[in-house]
Amino acid sequence: MNGPAEPFKIKVVEPVNLPSEQRRKEAIREAGYNTFLLLSDDVYIDLLTDSGTAAMSDNQWAGMMLGDEAYAGSKNFYHLDQAIKDVLGYNYTVPTHQGRGAEHLMYSYLVKPGQIVPRNMYFTTSKVHVELPGGKMVDTIIDEAHDPESTHPFKGNVDFKKLQGFIDTYGADKIAFVNVEMDVNMAGGQPVSMENLRKLREFCDDYKLKIIFDATRSSENAYFIREREKGYESTPIIEILREMMSYSDGCIYSSKKDCLVNIGGFLATHDKEIFEATRSMVVVYEGLHTYGGMAGRDMEAVARGLREGAQYEYLKYRINQVRYLGELLIKVGVPIVRPIGGHAVFLNALKFLPHLPRDQWPAQTLAGAIYEDSAVRTMERGAISKGRDSETGENIFPKLELVRLTIPRRVYTNTHMEYTAESVINLYGKRNEINGLKMVYEPKYLRFFQARFEKLE
Fold first, then answer.
1. S-S: 193 plus which of 154, 173, 186, 316, CB 3.0-4.6 Å?
2. Beta strand 376-377 with 45-46: parallel, antiparallel or unpaired?
3. Choice among 214, 249, 258, 298 that is catalytic
4. What superfamily would CATH give domain 21-50+312-455?
């Protein structure tokens, strides 16, 4: 048996079609070899992202029918507020339309021009929201995170020597806050240990620094703590989550991942000053402080999904489906990031396509090739995502040049994982025949969403 059986049964299905080989070639060319620009109708298995792509439960759909669409004081906001108190332990909540809305409010309030934000590896939208008010995001993750073949169990951990170095160089007053992502996306879905979070709280208390979590995939991180960290083997996931969040001053949260919904987000905090400031800002940018850009029905789905997504049996199934795909690839020598992460399998494009120079965009090339081979949509997580240096304008080529095969929650079966693996394995067998790309259009911000490419012959 390939991992635990699904802790659910299928109630509704959505038909999908496999485009012909000719159509796949046309579609990826029309999209400028950018999988974000493909039409959904041209995609057979969509592994672009786990954001907003989950299948909601009957309980969540039932909650949608109880949406209170009052402009002010919606009862669904109070259900959401209570769920956040119960599951994460935060006293104050500000709802937003999705995670980057929460980032905008939190980071624009906390970041002043010239300050830096140490973080355990950047994420694209987080980096931009630090830079827009005049700050700079710097990397404080342990070195093992930059090594795809390292099997360190908590590659998301903060490196305290690096953090101390930034304090010594810039001064504590130039640190806006310390940012910690759960299940670090750009490192391959790698978790942070409870011990590291506990020590970070003590470290930051010494310098009177705030800690803000990107808690978007915190439930999956909690599962890894239970699986890998001594002393937590039988601890309920909610207890692990509440301890994790107790080491922070607040968090931003995209509900579109662990809350198993299609839209929504929030920021939450223990700090009343942060709450009052961001609650004041939300009415300018998002909506009233009791809906923040979400409909009442969506807030109800988030409230129920936050509780569902913290259930151990569901997380066990979820993590092991991702692991199943990764192990199929490891068996035949396809280079991936190890250990296999929480939400995706990440292909090591530099080892997959070693004949391509970095300025021919190996990860972008590989994502396009996978689609052309099988109509499986994946995405680049490398130099295109990293972007340019904000001061010099030069391309940044990170150590990790990855293609992310992101598994939507409760959507695909293990047979879909096998089909995907067959496509990747097929391409790996003829990898030397794959030509690179050149970029022909580049937008100013978050270029990976809209950049266009042409194939080099």
1. 154
2. parallel
3. 214
4. Aspartate Aminotransferase, domain 1 (3.90.1150.10)
